[in-house]
Amino acid sequence: MGFETPPSNWYHIAMDNSPTDIPWNRPSLWCEANTTLARTIHCHHTDMAAAIQTAGKIRMRLESIFPCMDALCRHTCPTCTDNCCQRAWVWADFKDLLFYHLAGITPPEAQLLGGRGEHCRYAGPFGCRLDRFQRPFVCSWYLCPAQTLILQNTPADRDDLVTSLQWVQAARRRLEAQFIQAVFNPGEAASYDAVKG
Questions:
Q1: Which of 1, 70, 97, 173 is paired with 43 by a 20 to 30 Å CA distance?
Q2: Which residues make Cβ contacts (< 8 Å) with residue 159, sequence separation at least 6?
Q3: Residue 48 placed within a domain
């Protein structure tokens, strides 16, 4: 039995055959995901200390970069002719849901997209209608070419922003690992945090 080269359009075939492209894309699924996650956290609350602490640190780090992000958006978004919020295919992932619940942030009322080809339901005529903390991390992570150009003129701001975004990205992975550890190996959650820092 040999290895067969997949057809050149393998990605499109896979996407067309997938039952759903976007997790929790129906209101009932979104509600179920958030309810189940809240219950799980409640049931394991005593073992969630490390994850709750990490979520709090993520929240503080994000809050520190929001003024810079807001300034970049004020300078670029109103005149943009290729609005990323209208063309991007993004949604809240599991790490976003963990962050909402562990940092005490009310999740958005629904997933950003309901299906393929839709635009973000929270994109309004004057920008995003979600609070910055409610937006998926990818919405903060992405810097458009115009914003990148502005940051080239302020290397200290650029370096601070990039360092913070990279820190948050790593902390989100740690948050997910701490949650899994707390749920599946509750007695070892504290020792895992001490080792992984």
A1: 173
A2: none
A3: yes
Tell me which long-range contacts 85-89 makes (C-beta under 8 A, separation of at least 24).
Answer: 85/119, 85/120, 85/123, 85/127, 85/128, 86/119, 86/120, 86/123, 87/119, 88/120, 88/142, 89/113, 89/116
User: Which residues make beta-bridge pairs with 124?
Assistant: 127
Q: How many domains does the chain have?
A: 1
- Domain holding 102, by residue range, is 26-196
φ, ψ of residue 194 to 5 degrees: the values are -65, -35
Q: Is 125 helix (H, G, I), strand (E, B) or coil?
A: coil
Compute the distance between CA of residue 155 and CA of residue 162 in angstroms, rounded to an integer.
Answer: 10
Tokens of 170: 């790593």
Greatest distance between any 2 Cα atoms in the chain:
58
Q: Would you state the structure tokens that stand for residue 147, as one six-digit string?
A: 């914003």
Q: Report residue 84 CA to chain centroid gap.
A: 16
Does residue 13 form part of some domain?
no
| pTM of structure | 0.83
Q: Is the pLDDT of residue 102 over 60?
A: yes
20 part of a folded domain: no
pLDDT in tens, 74-92: 999 888 888 888 878 889 9
Distance between CA atoms of residues 93 and 137, nearest Å: 9
Q: CA separation (Å) from 93 to 22, 124, 137?
A: 9, 21, 9
Look up residue 152 and give its amino acid.
Q
